[in-house]
Amino acid sequence: MEIGIVGLGLIGGSLAKAISQNTDNTVYGFDISEPVIHKAMLVDAIEQPLTDELLPQCDIVIVALYPQDTIDYVTSHADLFKKGGIVCDCSGVKRIVCEQLIPLAEEKGFLFIGGHPMAGREHSGFTYAKKSLFNNASMIFTPTRGPIESMEKLKNLFTSIGFTNIEIATPEEHDRKIAFTSQLAHVVSNAYIKSPTAQEHMGFSAGSYKDLTRVAKLNEDMWTELFLENPDNLADEIDTLIENLQEYSFAIREMDSETLHQLLKEGREKKAIIDGEIF
Fold this sequence. Notes:
- The protein is built from ten helices and eight strands.
- It is an alpha/beta fold.
């Protein structure tokens, strides 16, 4: 197949490298940075730049941009996509993207399928892209009406570059779950590191500190947009967490060992159930 990738940052660049080096497909790439395009060609991540002239040849176009940029790109190029071709995005929220692009795709004769690769690093940009980024990762699709062969094409492509789990969800289900599994974790990590004690942690920290602070070093431009495009779900998760933390705080301040012990036990048991362990 001929595959176009729009946006050669961490995700788009890693997709380009993985597809080019692990499959027989031809990859074209576009990025607003000319040096990034040249570098991608130099390391054989893409065969040549993705132009408006090449776009109608692409069987699949993967848009790896921020949500609003995704909407803007697909909308402005809607007449150029191959009739019957597939356009898939990689943004971290799905409702706002799918609500606007699915009707457009149906009108213009291509198939839009929302996507979200569950992989990443604490660094961004093509410099940190690697073909192994998606090894053993999950890929979430929020498909619309379309031939089953199209989903099979996408599934085969993504499993060929390392994804081992394909999940199907509605845009609403995706955004609700991702608020907990991804967005809340970034909020907590970013807020946790603001403790004054963080300046004094050297020599007093180990794995738990590293685990909890890893994603504090985030891209504030991207995450601000993602958080504000999923405000209801994320705010609910934050409020739930605050309520839970207040229970621990109250029990500790009151020296209530029985309540504290029970809270810790409940948390341990819930984690074990989620992990499929028997206790």
